[in-house]
Design a protein that fits this description.
Elements (H helix, E strand, L loop, with lengths): L1 E10 L3 E6 L3 E2 H13 L3 E7 L5 E2 L1 H12 L3 E12 L4 E12 L2 E11 L5 H19 L5 E6 L2 H8 L7 H17 L2 E6 L6 H11 L5 E6 L4
Parallel strand pairs: 6-9, 9-10
Antiparallel strand pairs: 1-2, 1-3, 1-4, 4-5, 6-7, 7-8, 8-11
Helix pairs in contact: 1-2, 3-5
Protein name: RNase H type-1 domain-containing protein
InterPro entries: RNaseH-like_sf (IPR012337), RNaseH_domain (IPR002156), RNaseH_sf (IPR036397)
GO molecular function: nucleic acid binding; RNA-DNA hybrid ribonuclease activity
Length: about 220
């Protein structure tokens, strides 16, 4: 989780100055706040998240402790496939995350109906990924999203415009859920070769082979 530090500083002649930092990791922000307090010139220190939420030092410490028992350090992969002959799609997602000092991997897929194109299957796969993150309890933290659909990731990030009404409907749905969960997205387009796990799951869904699995990863895994 990244936050800005807002520090109300008592300057010479008792003049108050409000200083705001760039976004930094919450753990680092709390450590800096400790140093600010040692100066004896800190009238107030608050922390501001990406959604404009304001946290006190006590509240932020409590949140970070709670997050240790919840999924965090999340890296999520997605892929969608489409069969023109049947108008069916397949979605595959893989989620790596930490919880209670352990590393986990979730793999899941889903067969999709009434789609029109491979691009729409990619949007539907991302939406399926958002649903899986919600089920895991992922909220109010950064999530790295990786996929080989550069169109979806670039449009979600706002780098590319979207002119198709059907795709805009998916974008709106995804962004609404993203905001609801308080997720701070980091979009990382990757190659198809780097997305093999999600691609295989999408292919298996198209073939009617449904998979949902969770496993704890060892250091070697």
């Amino acid at each position: 989780m990244d936050v800005r530090i807002q520090w109300t500083y008592i300057a010479p002649k008792k003049r108050e100055v409000v200083l705001t930092s760039d976004f930094i990791r919450a753990e680092e922000a709390l450590a800096l706040a400790e140093d600010f307090e040692k100066t004896g010139r800190a009238k107030a220190i608050h922390f501001i998240d990406h959604h404009g939420g304001i946290w006190s030092k006590k509240e932020l410490n409590k949140l970070l402790k709670e997050m240790e028992s919840e999924p965090h350090d999340v890296i999520a992969y997605f892929d969608g496939g489409f069969d023109h002959a049947t108008a069916k799609g397949g979605a595959g997602v893989v989620v790596y995350y930490k919880q209670n000092n352990e590393q986990y991997r979730l793999r899941a897929n889903l067969q999709l109906d009434e789609l029109k194109s491979n691009n729409e299957a990619e949007y539907a796969a991302f939406w399926f990924l958002m649903q899986m993150l919600e089920e895991l309890g992922v909220h109010h933290l950064p999530v790295t999203f990786r996929g080989d659909s550069h169109v979806v990731l670039k449009q979600l990030s706002g780098d590319w415009p979207c002119f198709e009404d059907d795709y805009n409907a998916w974008l709106d749905r995804i962004e609404e859920k993203m905001s609801e969960l308080g997720i701070e997205p980091i979009y990382e387009p990757i190659s198809r070769k780097q997305n093999k796990e999600a691609d295989q799951l999408a292919r298996q869904a198209l073939a009617g082979q449904m998979i949902t699995s969770m496993m704890e990863l060892t250091e070697k895994g």
